[in-house]
């Protein structure tokens, strides 16, 4: 949804209606999960995806019907073959999709997307909250951020707060709330600007991790080298807090040019509440670093926070492959089920 915020707001401000198609729930092995979204324009153009293939074609057709009827609607698509009303996809499963019709005359829609657009550069968590009626109407919507709900007319923060999770949440009943995280707080700090970092940073940017590169060498702490980085820091590995504050929502990947720098960084990062800490290196390097940390009073529990060797075990060898394995592990961490925000 994040990538669709600006084009949606631009269309509404330019007097053009749009439809946002969003998967509300999925069962089985459908290609995309809840929260996957597609923006459809009245002239038939589309951006984003709800899974491609036949299901996306059907959703697009329904979106075009929404323009004709000037209303929102929901539909359930059966993806398993050889079933009544199926759409012939072999992957199996069902998806329920909301096609949300947005008119440029809808002041609430303009308020919601203006607010989300404002927040997109703030580095805070934000959720889009929608009330969805049985027929697919969306009578109310708002934005949750920093303990407040804005733009909504009838939905209260007390209703939405239990549903604020890392994953989209949908309540039961004829009038349901759908709450989806649209903006994520935090950054991914990449310490070391070498070959793997140069492959990893653009990938993290595309995955909405908001990467920040930190190196002590001017040639490697360069915006020209890392145009996709949210920020590039030329600093001292021994004094990270002088340049940046690592927060609980932040991810850290350590891939410097030497054992000493890795150790310097770990002793600092382990004293933060970073959500993820990854350390690249051979098993002998890792064992040596662990020994040094223990000598300085760190415990087994402290070291257990460190993902090392960093990345999922996919037998990666080249810098691009290693970058993929690291990004995949970070996605796995980010998408861990939350213990809060369970729907009734």
Explain this structure to me?
The chain is α/β, with parallel strands linked by helices and 344 residues long. 29% of the residues lie in helices and 24% in strands. It has nine helices and 16 strands. It has helices at residues 5-13, 53-69, 107-119, 157-160, 195-206, 259-269, 283-295, 300-304, 319-334, and strands at residues 18-27, 37-41, 46-48, 73-78, 94-102, 126-132, 140-145, 148-150, 169-170, 176-183, 188-191, 211-215, 231-234, 251-254, 276-279, 306-307. Strands 13-12-11-14-15-16 form a six-stranded parallel β-sheet, sandwiched between helices. Strands 3-2-1-5-4 form a five-stranded antiparallel β-sheet. The protein has a five-stranded antiparallel β-sheet with strand order 8-7-6-10-9, covered by helices on one side. Strand 14 (251-254), helix 6 and strand 15 (276-279) form a beta-alpha-beta unit. Helix 1 packs across helix 3 and helix 6 (259-269) crosses helix 7 (283-295). The longest helix has 17 residues, at 53-69.
What is the secondary structure topology, with strand pairs?
Elements: H1 5-13, E1 18-27, E2 37-41, E3 46-48, H2 53-69, E4 73-78, E5 94-102, H3 107-119, E6 126-132, E7 140-145, E8 148-150, H4 157-160, E9 169-170, E10 176-183, E11 188-191, H5 195-206, E12 211-215, E13 231-234, E14 251-254, H6 259-269, E15 276-279, H7 283-295, H8 300-304, E16 306-307, H9 319-334
Helix pairs in contact: 1-3, 5-9, 6-7
């Amino acid at each position: 949804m994040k990538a669709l915020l600006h084009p949606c707001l631009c269309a509404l401000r330019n007097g053009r209606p749009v439809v946002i198609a969003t998967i509300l729930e999925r069962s089985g092995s459908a290609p995309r999960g809840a929260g996957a979204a597609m923006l459809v324009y009245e002239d038939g153009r589309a951006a984003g995806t709800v899974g491609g293939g036949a299901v996306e074609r059907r959703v697009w057709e329904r979106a075009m019907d929404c323009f004709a009827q000037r209303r929102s609607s929901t539909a359930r698509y059966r993806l398993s073959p050889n079933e009544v009303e199926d759409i012939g996809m072999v992957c199996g499963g069902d998806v329920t999709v909301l096609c949300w019709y947005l008119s440029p005359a809808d002041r609430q829609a303009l308020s919601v997307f203006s607010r989300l657009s404002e927040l997109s550069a703030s580095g805070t968590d934000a959720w889009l909250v929608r009330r969805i009626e049985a027929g697919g109407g969306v009578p109310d919507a708002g934005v949750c951020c920093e303990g407040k709900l804005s733009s909504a007319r009838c939905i209260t923060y007390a209703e939405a707060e239990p549903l604020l999770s890392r994953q989209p949440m949908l309540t039961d009943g004829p009038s349901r709330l759908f709450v989806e995280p649209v903006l994520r707080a935090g950054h991914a700090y990449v310490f070391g600007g070498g070959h793997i970092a140069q492959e990893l940073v653009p990938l993290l940017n595309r995955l909405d991790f908001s990467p920040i590169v930190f190196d002590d060498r001017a040639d490697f702490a360069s915006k020209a080298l890392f145009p996709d980085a949210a920020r590039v820091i030329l600093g001292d590995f021994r004094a990270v807090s002088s340049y940046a504050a690592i927060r609980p929502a932040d991810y850290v990947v350590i891939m410097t040019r030497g054992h000493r720098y890795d150790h310097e960084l770990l002793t600092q990062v382990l004293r933060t509440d970073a959500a993820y800490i990854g350390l690249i290196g051979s098993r002998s390097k890792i064992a040596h670093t662990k020994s040094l940390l223990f000598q300085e009073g760190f415990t087994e529990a402290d070291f257990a926070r460190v993902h090392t060797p960093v990345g999922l075990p996919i037998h990666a060898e080249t810098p691009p492959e290693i970058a993929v394995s690291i990004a995949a592990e970070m996605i796995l961490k980010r998408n861990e089920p939350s213990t809060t925000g369970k729907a009734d």
